[in-house]
Design a protein that fits this description.
This protein has helices at 94-106, 151-162; strands at 6-10, 16-20, 62-63, 70-78, 83-89, 111-118, 129-130, 132-136, 142-147. With 166 residues, the protein is α+β, with helices and mostly antiparallel strands. The strands form 3 sheets. The chain has a 5-stranded antiparallel β-sheet, covered by helices on one side. The protein has a two-stranded antiparallel sheet with strand order 1-2.
């Protein structure tokens, strides 16, 4: 058996480590490919992983738990077209609380038509996660929905219907 070729490289601890070099591979009928060896590995340990915090999970928000109550608010956001904004949030929902200041700033100057707390029996079936936002027309038909806690997405979503012109 042939001895395997190797290259010496300094490890993290300063000691020399033998890094094996792959021998040339020969296929029948194909001339051997010149192999100058596998380049030395620059990091012999596991590379460090940057700790950037918990990555967002596609803005899923908080799943609704059947026994918990949620808050429903309604704003009239466009008098010309009769658009309403309905929001589904909760005091126990972290993403909802983080989105609340941006939501309130975006609907500032609109008419707040009230709020109520609802349980699982009154909850709309299409609302699976919160915070959830629906834009309704004057006949209460849902035009568009958004499930997000991202302030930029929420602002764009509301302004799209709030500042509609002919």
């Amino acid at each position: 058996m042939k001895a395997q070729r190797s290259v010496l490289q300094k490890g993290k601890d300063g000691k020399n480590i033998a890094i094996p070099i792959n021998p040339p591979v020969s296929n029948l009928g194909t001339p051997p490919v010149s192999n100058l060896g596998t380049p030395p590995v620059s990091n012999l340990g596991t590379p460090p992983v940057a700790n950037l915090g918990t990555p967002p999970v596609a803005n899923l928000g908080t799943p609704l738990v059947n026994e918990k109550m949620i808050n429903v608010n309604r704003w009239k956001i466009n008098d010309t077209f009769g658009y309403y904004l309905v929001t589904y949030t909760a005091t126990w929902c972290g993403p909802c609380q983080r989105a609340k200041p941006h939501l309130l700033k975006t609907v500032e100057g609109t008419q707040h038509l009230g709020s109520k707390e609802i349980g699982r029996t009154k909850r709309p079936k299409h609302v699976k996660f919160i915070p959830w936002f629906d834009v309704l027309d004057s006949s209460d038909k849902i035009i568009e929905s958004l499930q997000s806690s991202d302030p930029k997405q929420i602002t764009q979503f509301i302004q799209k219907y709030r500042f509609v012109e002919f």
